[in-house]
C-alpha cells in the first residue's frame, strides 16, 4: 500500500515528510492540494486536517498530520530500512528530539517569516516590511551562531550521523538560501556551511529538490 | 543521582515535572528567576544556549527537550504516556505538535501579556491579547470536535499530548480569568476536569508554586 501525502511538492512542510520517505525508501504518491486556491481551507480538506494545514498522510486506514509527527512515525516504523534517522541509544534519540524541537521553536518561525516577507508577499503583489525583515534576520543570525557553536563540536546536530533533526531544516534552509537571497546566513558560518553542503548533497534531498524546483 | 530540573516556578518546566511525577521518577528542582533574567546568565547559557526554560541535568547528561526521553526511558514504570502501538505513538506526536504550533503560541502570548507585563513594567498590548484570544478560541473549537469523539486527544488513553496542555491551561482558567473558554465547550470542559484532577498535577502544584499564587 502506497502512502498518500496530501500537499504540494513545493511547500516546505510536505517536503519535510517527502524527504523522510525518500530517505527511508518508502513509496508514496502526492495528492495535490492547491494552496494558492485556498483548497486547504475548504470544508472537504478540513475533514482531513481540522487546522487547514498541509501535509496529511493516509497509510491505508491510518491517518496522521503535523509533519514532525509524521517523520517521527515513519522513522520509527521503518527503523530497519534505510538510514537510521533516530540515533542508536535513548540518549542519542533524546538529542534528535532536542534539535527537532530547536528547529521547530527557535529556527522555523524566523525562517518562515523571512520567506513570507521576501518571497511570498512579493509574489502576491504585496509589499514586505523592511524593518521586520531586518529584525528577523538579526534574530536568525543569533540562532545560527548557536548552531555554529554546536556544529564545531559535532558533525551533525544530534551527533555523528544525519538524523531527523538535520532533515527537518532542509526545506526552509533551501528557500532561505535561494528564493529569499539569504545564503550569506549559511555561507558566512564555516561549520554551518559545511553541514549544509553535506545534508543538501544527500541523494534523497537532491531527488526531492529536482522534483520540486 | 537525581535529575535536576531548572525553573520549577514556571509553566514549561512544569510539563517536565508533571511527566517525572507520572513516571514516578525522583527529581530535584533548581530555581531560575525569569524576572531577574537569570536565564540569560553565562552559567545558564552553558546549559541551554537559547536562554530558555526548562533544562535538565541527569548526571552528565544535559537536555532541553525532555518529556519524550523520560517517557521512553521509564516506559515500564508509572503511567504509560506514549500509547501502546507505533500508530498510537504517532497520534500522541500529532497532538503534541498541535499543542506546540496551534495552542501554545496563543496561550503563551496571553501569559506574557496578561501575567508578565506588569512584572516587567510594560503595558499590555490589547491588540495582541485580542488576536491571541481569537486564535485560541478557534483551536479550542477544533479540540471540542476531537474530544466529542475521543476521551483524550490521542485516543482513549491519557498521554504526553494531554499532559503538555496542563500547565498553561492552569493559568488560563486561573489568573487569566478565562475559564469560560474551557467551560463553554462541553467536551473540552470534561477533558480539562479529568486531566487537571490527576493526583500528579495536584502534587506538582503543591511542590512548585507558580509566581501568580
From TrEMBL, chain A:
Keywords: Cytoplasm, Detoxification, Transferase
Signal sequence region: none
Compartment annotation: Cytoplasm, Cytosol
CDD domains: GST_C_Phi, GST_N_Phi
Catalytic activity: RX + glutathione = an S-substituted glutathione + a halide anion + H(+)
Entry's EC annotation: 2.5.1.18
Domain GST C-terminal: from-to ranges: 89-213
One Pfam family it belongs to: GST_C
GO cellular component: cytosol
GO MF assignments: glutathione transferase activity
PROSITE patterns found in the cross-reference section: GST_CTER, GST_NTER
Transcription among keywords: no
Main location: cytoplasm
GST N-terminal domain segment(s): 1-82
PANTHER family: GLUTATHIONE S-TRANSFERASE F12, GLUTATHIONE S-TRANSFERASE RHO
Protein family (similarity comment): Belongs to the GST superfamily. Phi family.
Name this polypeptide is given: glutathione transferase
Provenance organism: Citrus sinensis (Sweet orange)
From TrEMBL, chain B:
Protein name: Glutathione S-transferase F9
Amino acid at each position: 500500500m502506497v502512502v498518500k501525502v496530501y500537499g504540494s511538492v513545493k511547500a516546505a512542510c510536505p517536503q519535510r515528510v517527502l524527504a523522510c520517505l525518500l530517505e527511508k525508501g518508502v513509496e508514496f504518491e502526492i495528492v495535490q492540494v492547491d494552496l494558492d486556491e485556498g483548497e486547504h481551507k475548504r470544508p472537504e480538506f478540513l475533514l482531513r486536517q481540522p487546522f487547514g494545514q498541509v501535509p496529511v498522510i493516509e497509510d491505508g486506514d491510518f491517518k496522521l498530520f503535523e509533519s514532525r509527527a509524521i517523520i517521527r512515525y515513519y522513522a520509527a516504523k521503518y527503523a530497519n530500512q534505510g538510514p537510521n534517522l533516530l540515533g542508536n541509544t535513548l540518549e542519542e534519540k533524546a538529542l534528535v528530539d532536542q534539535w527537532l524541537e530547536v528547529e521547530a521553536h527557535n529556527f522555523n518561525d524566523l525562517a518562515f517569516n523571512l520567506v513570507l516577507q521576501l518571497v511570498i508577499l512579493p509574489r502576491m503583489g504585496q509589499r514586505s516590511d523592511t524593518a521586520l525583515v531586518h529584525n528577523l534576520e538579526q534574530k536568525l543570525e543569533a540562532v545560527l551562531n548557536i548552531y555554529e557553536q554546536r556544529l564545531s563540536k559535532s558533525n551533525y546536530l544530534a551527533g555523528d550521523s544525519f538524523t531527523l533533526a538535520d532533515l527537518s531544516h532542509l526545506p526552509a534552509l533551501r528557500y532561505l538560501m535561494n528564493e529569499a537571497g539569504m545564503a550569506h546566513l549559511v555561507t558566512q558560518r564555516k561549520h554551518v556551511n559545511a553541514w549544509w553542503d553535506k545534508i543538501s548533497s544527500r541523494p534523497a534531498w537532491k531527488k526531492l529538490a529536482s522534483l520540486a524546483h | 543521582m537525581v535529575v535536576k530540573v531548572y525553573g520549577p516556578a514556571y509553566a514549561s518546566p512544569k510539563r517536565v515535572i508533571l511527566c517525572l511525577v507520572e513516571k514516578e521518577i525522583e527529581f530535584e528542582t533548581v530555581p531560575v528567576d525569569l524576572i531577574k533574567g537569570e536565564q540569560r546568565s553565562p552559567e545558564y547559557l552553558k546549559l541551554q544556549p537559547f536562554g530558555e526554560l526548562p533544562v535538565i541535568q541527569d548526571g552528565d547528561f544535559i537536555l532541553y527537550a525532555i518529556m519524550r526521553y523520560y517517557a521512553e526511558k521509564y516506559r515500564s514504570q508509572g503511567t504509560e504516556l506514549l500509547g501502546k502501538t507505533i500508530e498510537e505513538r504517532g497520534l500522541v506526536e500529532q497532538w503534541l505538535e498541535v499543542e506546540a504550533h496551534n495552542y501554545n503560541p496563543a496561550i503563551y502570548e496571553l501569559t506574557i501579556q496578561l501575567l508578565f507585563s506588569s512584572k516587567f513594567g510594560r503595558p499590555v498590548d490589547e491588540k495582541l491579547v485580542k488576536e491571541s484570544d481569537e486564535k485560541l478560541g478557534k483551536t479550542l473549537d477544533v479540540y471540542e470536535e476531537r474530544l466529542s469523539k475521543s476521551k483524550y486527544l490521542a485516543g482513549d488513553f491519557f498521554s504526553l499530548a494531554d499532559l503538555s496542555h496542563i500547565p498553561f491551561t492552569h493559568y488560563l482558567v486561573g489568573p487569566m480569568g478565562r475559564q469560560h473558554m474551557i467551560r463553554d465547550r462541553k467536551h473540552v470542559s470534561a477533558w480539562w476536569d479529568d486531566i487537571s484532577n490527576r493526583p500528579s498535577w495536584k502534587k506538582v502544584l503543591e511542590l512548585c508554586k507558580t509566581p501568580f499564587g
